[in-house]
């Protein structure tokens, strides 16, 4: 499969513990290349818009509060089968279920504060990349 792109967020629990480099190394070691990256403080409006798909879920308000509780690092990752490759190295949403060797197994604090976001489809990856990056900010 040809190289393609996915979207990643290093979440506030990880930036707070100074794990930006450790998480990025795990992504790179998994065969993903960081082709765009910026550290930002998300606004409430941005977080609500980004997670709009979850707005009916009971954890939505807590999730938004968590995502704006500190800086995040938004990234575009490139590699073969990038969406799946990233989901595999992230591990399960709940760190209690995450496999050995995954980012969430190694670093997540809880099902909510689980260190990383990753797109779940090529279509959502394209939408999520466009939510945070202009095309000229992505340099392969
Ligand atoms: P994933 O990030 O693995 O794709 P989801 O898309 O289902 O997981 O959920 C988005 C985010 O919402 C999760 O990464 C996590 O931060 C939070 N979340 C999911 N389920 C719960 C839950 N039951 N309680 C609290 N937070 C949750
Ligand atoms: Mg998801």
Structural class: alpha+beta
Q: How would you state the average pLDDT, rounded?
A: 97
Q: Segments where pLDDT lies below 50 for 5+ residues?
A: none
- Bound small-molecule species: adenosine-5'-diphosphate, magnesium ion
Strand content: 15-25%
Tell the overall outline: globular
Number of discrete helical segments? 7
**What is the helix/strand order?**
EHHEHHEHHEH
Helix content bin: 25-40%
| Overall strand count | 4
Radius of gyration: 14 Å
Query: In what order do the strands lie side by side in the largest sheet?
Result: 2-3-1-4
Distance between the termini: 17 Å
Main sheet summary: 4 strands, antiparallel
Keywords: ATP-binding, Cytoplasm, Kinase, Magnesium, Metal-binding, Nucleotide metabolism, Nucleotide-binding, Phosphoprotein, Transferase
Main location: cytoplasm
Organism: Stakelama flava
Subcellular location: Cytoplasm
